[in-house]
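note to self — DONT lose this again. spent like an hour looking for the file last time. sequence + predicted structure for the chain T wanted, 299 res
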Amino acid sequence: MTVFGVHVGLQHTTADELRGVWRRIEELGFGWISVWDHFYGATGRSDDAACLEAVAMHAALACTTSRVRCGSLVYSIGYRHPAVLAKAVTAIDQLSGGRAEMGLGSGWAKLEYDAYGFPFPDAKIRLDQLEEGVQCLRGLLHDEVTDFDGRYFRLTEARNEPRPVQAKLPIWIGGGGEKRTLKIAARFADGWNVPFIDPDAFAHKNSVLDQHCATAGRDPKQIRRAINVGLAFSEESLQQQFGAISDFVRPGVLTGNDQQIVDAIGGYVESGADQVNIALRAPFDLEALERFSEMLHLA
């Protein structure tokens, strides 16, 4: 069965507003809410720094809701040590009563790294860090004791106690890189997520992930597949939500009348999506979410 969720941006909002938005999303029948991990807004401007911190908001999400899965898409390995992140997500799992999920990515927002003094190495190194980091997280979240000796991360008889409520807290890998990111997902992830691509592109990347699974000797059915899409019933709404990046995200935006949107969702499901997340950012258009919920009879 397809899961419908909402991926809520943390920019240009307040904690009080977010709590109200999360409660309403849960009331509307969605099964998943996630947060992103940024220190600046998503516009890429150096003067756009109004963004709440992700781990704290992930915990707030867990405490505010009672039913939905509480995810993150995705934490950046470049400024999140996997051991510290494992401890934080374990606490979030306990706060939520076993509803936490976490995503990990290689990071891309160089502006944030530069502003806060984090190293921003080339893509190969960032992906090497991602590959090591996800193995550390799998050990700490899934096993009683973990040893890992990598170039970037080391764990020695590391214990993560108290344990998460879930025996296997799901770990997602975010990104669409076909040579490394999808290979890492095939080997180590419980879920894979990519944003703003059309159903045909999703189907292609989905098949690449399956090929990597075959090479790794892993059942592809063990990995959930999720697409993040925009929701804009009009061009005006698209421009209001995404501004300068509207054309970039347009291939992955649900738009048009109700039937056109239902057909687009069907295209993603046929392309292998187990989960469809609406990417929502302030100013939050809850009326659009309400219409979407009614259209799919979620509540």
